Amino acid sequence: MIRGFIFDLDGVITDTAEYHYRGWKRLAEEEGLAFTREDNEQLRGIPRRESLLLILRDRLYPEEKILEMMERKNNYYLQFIREISPRDLLPGAKELLEEVRLAGMKNALGSASKNATEVLDRLGIHSLFDAISDGHSVERQKPAPDLFLHAAGQLGLPSAECVVVEDAAAGIEAANAGGFHSIGLGPWERVGKAEAVFPSLSGLHLEEIFTALSLKP
Ligand code: G6P
Ligand code: MG
């Protein structure tokens, strides 16, 4: 039996994954570091510091410089999200959030971002969530299961009764490690370890999800 859904934010509900990429890309260019869209695939769902360390590879920098680069990227990101409005919801996202509620189930957010609530507010969908777990909620972020366990705890549900919706390999790994059902959005190479894979939330309804997971609503 499923009683809750836990949604990742960036790349699932809105395309802020693109803004994270552009922020890192600009920083990498300023620092003379090679960083491609392909490299960025490894960064999906990964927290700010760990993302930067992946971009820096084995180069060593003083802590002060690391903190400055994290802040610089975040400032670029904040500039991008200032323009976000309800028009930036990805197709099908709001519809599924509403369908979950109508079916008597709960919605939680499970995003590693420290900017998640600001994005939700700008999208105008904060009230569709019963719980928010974000970059401030736990120490160990994805691929550890802690963030999703935190979200399920806030909903008062065991992980086996929740479906995690993710676009990142690290997010699917976290869901699997926590004993959650999982839906991967995007290419198989990225989210193929999910229980069910769909290209996006566009046109996706509960019935199709439950069928794919061999579950009953
Ligand atoms: C999400 C995104 C990542 C981002 C992380 C931290 O997991 O998918 O790309 O690095 O959040 O976001 P923040 O807004 O706190 O830098
Ligand atoms: Mg994501």
Which short descriptors sum up this protein?
single chain; 217 residues; alpha/beta; 6-stranded parallel beta sheet; 10 helices; binds 6-O-phosphono-alpha-D-glucopyranose; binds magnesium ion
Layout: helices, strands, pairs:
Blueprint (H helix, E strand, L loop, with lengths): L3 E4 L8 H15 L6 H5 L6 H9 L6 H19 L11 H10 L3 E5 L5 H8 L7 E3 L12 H10 L6 E5 L2 H9 L3 E5 L2 H4 L4 E3 L7 H7 L5
Parallel strand pairs: 1-2, 1-4, 2-3, 4-5, 5-6
Helix pairs in contact: 1-4, 3-4
The structure holds 6-O-phosphono-alpha-D-glucopyranose (G6P) and magnesium ion.
The site of 6-O-phosphono-alpha-D-glucopyranose has 17 residues, from helix 1 and helix 3.
What does this structure look like?
By secondary structure, the protein is α/β, with parallel strands linked by helices. The chain has helices spanning 16-30, 37-41, 48-56, 63-81, 93-102, 116-123, 146-155, 169-177, 188-191, 206-212; strands at residues 4-7, 106-110, 131-133, 162-166, 181-185, 196-198. The chain contains ten helices and six strands. It has a six-stranded parallel sheet with strand order 3-2-1-4-5-6. Helix 3 (48-56) packs across helix 4 (63-81). The chain is globular and about 50 Å long. The mean pLDDT is 96. The structure holds 6-O-phosphono-alpha-D-glucopyranose and magnesium ion. Residues 10, 17, 20, 43-48, 51, 74, 111-115, 135 line the site of 6-O-phosphono-alpha-D-glucopyranose.
